């Protein structure tokens, strides 16, 4: 789901890897809560028009009891996997679930496990760029783009010689004499472009 492989707890028993741990960001009594759990079943709902929705059926750990269910320390979150919560609401949308791993806690032991949130390989969280409708911003940005284009035109192209075999057409007109234009009449940017073109025609 979204580039992340999830397995049910049952399927995981025969494997060395752990892919059944989930966390879902939600709310409990008006305050934000991370619901930690383990995946028991994956359900596919099919609708007309070949539309599909995937649900995860999970066993949620008791994160409502800060003493017997969850302990949050400086850089660790530890859950008691023996205590469950929301048994009558096991479902979550698969697209809302993030993957976590559970590691045995050596200090508390028993059914206490440390939650390890991971960053998946080849899955990137790219920030969205916001745009404004301000006309001034549009004019400034288009002006900057035009200036960048001019700089690329003036500095990034290698000189092309007329004698090269890649030249399909010459850059100057053969049936006309060269026309000299006084540089004082040419604005700065156009002057740079004019000098560049003269360089090419030599």
Note down, in words, how this protein is organized.
- With 202 residues, the protein is α+β, with helices and mostly antiparallel strands.
- The protein folds into two domains: 9-117; 149-201, no CATH class.
- Helix content is 19%, strand content 30%.
- Strands 1, 2, 3, 4, 5, 6, 7, 8 and 9 form a nine-stranded antiparallel β-sheet that branches.
- Strand 1 (21-28) and strand 2 (31-47) form a beta hairpin.
- The chain is elongated, with a radius of gyration of 32 Å.
- It comes from Juglans regia.
- InterPro entries: DUF4216.
In short:
By secondary structure, the protein is of the alpha+beta class. The chain is built from 3 helices and 9 strands, in the order αβββββββββαα.
The DSSP helix count reads 3
Low-confidence segments:
none
Termini separation: 61 Å
The helix-strand sequence is HEEEEEEEEEHH
> Which structural class do you get from the secondary structure elements?
alpha+beta
Task: Provide the β-strand percentage band.
Answer: 25-35%
Sum up the overall morphology in one term.
Answer: elongated
Give the rounded overall mean pLDDT.
Answer: 77
Helix fraction, binned, reads 10-25%
Major sheet details:
9 strands, antiparallel
Number of separate domains: 2
**Count of β-strands:** 9
């Amino acid at each position: 789901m979204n580039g992340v492989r999830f397995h049910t707890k049952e399927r995981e028993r025969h494997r060395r890897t752990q892919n059944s741990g989930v966390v879902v960001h939600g709310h409990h009594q008006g305050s934000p809560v991370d619901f930690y759990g383990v995946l028991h079943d994956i359900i596919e709902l099919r609708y007309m028009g070949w539309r599909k929705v995937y649900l995860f059926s999970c066993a949620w750990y008791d994160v409502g009891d800060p003493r017997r269910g969850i302990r949050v320390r400086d850089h660790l979150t530890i859950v008691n996997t023996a205590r469950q919560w929301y048994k009558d609401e096991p479902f979550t949308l698969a697209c809302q679930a993030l993957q976590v791993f559970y590691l045995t806690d050596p200090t508390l032991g028993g059914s206490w496990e440390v939650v390890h949130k991971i960053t998946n390989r080849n899955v990137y969280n790219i920030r969205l760029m916001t745009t404004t409708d301000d006309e001034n911003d549009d004019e400034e940005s288009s002006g900057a783009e035009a200036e960048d284009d001019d700089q690329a035109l003036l500095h990034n192209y290698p000189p092309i010689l007329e004698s090269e075999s890649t030249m399909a057409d010459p850059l100057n007109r053969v049936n006309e004499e060269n026309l000299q234009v006084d540089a004082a009449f040419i604005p700065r940017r156009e002057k740079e472009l004019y000098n560049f073109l003269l360089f090419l025609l030599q």
